[in-house]
Amino acid sequence: MTAPPRKRRKEARPSELLGAALALFVDKGFAATRLEDVASRAGVSKGTLYLYYANKAALFKAVVQEGIVPVIVENEAIAARHTGSSFTLLEMLLHNWWTKIGQTDYAGIPKLIVAEARNFPELAQFYYENVISRARALVGACLRRGMASGEFRQLDMETAIDVVIAPILMLLIWRYSFGCCQQGESDPERYLQIHTELLRQGLRQLENESQV
Amino acid sequence: MTAPPRKRRKEARPSELLGAALALFVDKGFAATRLEDVASRAGVSKGTLYLYYANKAALFKAVVQEGIVPVIVENEAIAARHTGSSFTLLEMLLHNWWTKIGQTDYAGIPKLIVAEARNFPELAQFYYENVISRARALVGACLRRGMASGEFRQLDMETAIDVVIAPILMLLIWRYSFGCCQQGESDPERYLQIHTELLRQGLRQLENESQV
DNA sequence: TAAGTTAATGACTTGTTGGTCATTAACTTA
DNA sequence: TAAGTTAATGACCAACAAGTCATTAACTTA
Which of A136, B28, B30, B186 is the most buried (most CB within 10 A)? Predict the structure, then answer.
């Protein structure tokens, strides 16, 4: 038995470790993911992982920071430079989110964080500040814009944000919990299309409606 | 140091253990709940717990069996003897669910099961068969009844069931994850009222609508 | 009240995992 | 090629928790 050769690849380790961590976090959750498994999936030993990330929480934060926060930043840029219909902006934000998060392994993070928020308040806090609050602010700004221009009807802002976000969140949560056990695999694309269509109808300012 | 007196209370143990288990499961989740804590909260030692429940999974199943399944059974009875508007029936089912589950500690179980379904497929299976599938069948029967009588419009059944159930589920999931961290405590009663009102509008068969 | 039954205990075993660190070896440079 | 640097390793430690079982003591019955 001769030990396999060690390769020194300082540059490549972080992204390989983050990729392995994402896959396992999404599959098993935060608490149930073993760092030794993350390391071996990335082709290194456990000790090496600790060379790059101080502890499990730091590893998770790095996954979010590298994978999800950039999409928020992109969306903030899209919103900042957008001119035209507010509903179109909403569609663009949703589309970008779906492409970069919903169609990748990152789609499993929302369920993870909802599942473990209570047991790891530090991570919940981090995610809330860096993802949730910024996403809500983004949707809120879009809705406020549409309400100001008369494109959308006047609604309680927090409730309206919930109405926009909740179905998407629920879709991801379900997919990563009972999704596999359930036989009737509903098409997420179609679900989203229906959701968008409902929003188009529901948000629109009707001609005969009084402005509150 | 004299040991506290042992009391022999065979009859009272199960319900006390289930109460303690519910409180801790809802607070910490399934995996993170320690059986020693359940026992001590119920005022007994860990060994005693194992006298009444074979293992952690059996304890959880008993919590669901004793606390949630009876509400499903009640609702099945309500539906069976109901005459009159299908929407009223839907309201009655929702109201009973809210009173017996939503306003009690059992409200935390849906989040727990969604959070841990993948790591404990045996529990997920149990919950799916005994709660989810029966609840969906109940809502489905109610909707089918309303569609048959012309009270509700014709909708894809699985989607319609989702539309009815998802917002309630989301409300409970959020309350038991980020609920505490979030400042703006939205009133769940008002949320449910809005939900019900949306359903009343959304499900209604309009006069000029074509029957598919 | 003595013997029998069984509810209750808690120390113990077993297995797991986050995190550490002394050692090794790949690579660099003089 | 010899000495120095540092990426990488994996044995190890400490903490924790599920589940077991020999022992204890509360209660019952003859």
Answer: B30
Three-state SS sequence of B8-48: CCCCCHHHHHHHHHHHHHHHHCCCCCCHHHHHHHCCCCHHH
What CATH number does domain A13-60 carry, 3.30.1370.10, 1.10.10.60, 3.60.21.10, 3.20.20.450? 1.10.10.60
Strand partners, B204: B152
**What are the residue boundaries of the structural domains of chain A, listed by start?**
13-60, 68-203
User: Measured over all CA atoms, what is the biggest interatomic distance in chain B, rounded to whole angstroms?
Assistant: 82
A29/B170 CB distance under 8 A: no
Residues of A in contact with B118 (CB under 8 A): 27-29, 176-177, 180
| 8 Å CB contact of A181 and B113 | no
Locate the chain B residue with the closest alpha carbon to A156. B186
**Which nucleotides in chain D lie less than 7 Å from some protein C-beta?**
7-11, 16-22, 25-27
Name the closest residue (CA) to the C1' of nucleotide D27. Answer: B8
Q: Write down the architecture of domain B13-59 according to CATH.
A: Orthogonal Bundle (1.10)
Q: Which residues contact A77 (CB under 8 A, 6 or more apart)?
A: none
Give me the percent of chain A exceeding a pLDDT of 90: 73
Residue B155: the pLDDT is 84
For the purposes of burial, counting CB atoms within 10 Å of the CB of A157, is it exposed (0-12), middle (13-18) or buried (19 or more)? middle
Bridge partner residues of A204 (DSSP)? A152
Q: Superfamily for A68-203?
A: Tetracycline Repressor, domain 2 (1.10.357.10)
Long-range contacts of A208-211 (CB under 8 A, 24+ apart): A209/A153, A211/A150, A211/A154
What is the residue-averaged pLDDT of chain B? 91
**Contacts A180 to B, Cβ<8 Å:** 118
**Position B200, amino acid:** R
A178 contacts in chain B (CB < 8 Å): 114, 117, 124, 128, 132
Contact B121 A181 (CB under 8 A): yes
**For range B26-44, the mean pLDDT:** 97
How far apart (Å, rounded) are the C-alpha atoms in residues B26 and B36?
16
Q: What percent of chain B has pLDDT over 90?
A: 73
C-beta of residue B188 within 8 angstroms of C-beta of residue A131: no
